[in-house]
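Supplementary Methods, section 5.1.

A reviewer requested that the exact input to the structure prediction be made available. We therefore reproduce it here, unchanged from the version used in the analyses.
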Amino acid sequence: MRKLIGSIVFICLLVLSTATQAQGDELHDPEVQRVEPFQVFDNLYYIGVDWVASWLLVTDQGLIVFDALYEELTDLVIGNIRQLGFDPNDIRYLIGSHAHFDHIGGAIRFQQEFSAVVMMTEEDWAMTDEPAVYREYPKPIRHLSASDGATLNLGRTRLRFMKTPGHTPGVLSTLFTVYDNGYPHSAFMFGGVGLNFSGVERTEMYIESIKRMQQLTGIEVNIPNHASSADVFARRDMLAERQDGDPHPFVDPEGWTASLDLWRRQAEQKLETERASAD
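The structure derived from this sequence is encoded token-by-token as follows.
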């Protein structure tokens, strides 16, 4: 399995700052951003758009959505769930990777329309009481706070949470199991890849988070919250052409390790710059 291309990952690290451009930017245009939803594993579907990911995890006791997107892009997410044949009223939890508009701007829709329970870290819930960093969004109703090492069980599905601060003070990452024709694989969603923040302390937090993730063993699948950081659409195309006996293109432990190495190197370079600026 090929490893992720460094330039593609670097582009992802800059994409959120690109989102702060004019209101008419194509990143906010639902017609430009629309992506056909698709199944990735037995229990996992891509329901996001071109620049921001959202994922649907199917359990025997209901649905779990990772990230709500925002404004009209939230409409696309909800429509994608229906298009795949699922009922949004079956959503039990919405997991917010972090409190930037592109990930939780539409969270209140899931609370009000489908009675979904929203989970974030306490640090990022606190962010919702502060002025928005990039773009204002409707404040979600505070529900559950996820702590480091906590778990969430829904039927036979278990999520294990890990706080990986840096991109925001309380980035929430999640470890869970996906299935390929019944065969289990360990998947991980790093909730905040981007380096578009400032300050020595935050950069040090980011590096420590990467180091902790590098200590995890057995991770086989990288589930990103921006598609470009794991080459989602190229892998989708490979999956569509997969033949019996071929490896699953999303199962790529070497690519996961290479991504962590790359993110750490880039963060260490950023830290040097931050320290020099602080002198």
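Residues 253-278 form the longest helix (26 residues). These observations are discussed further in the main text.
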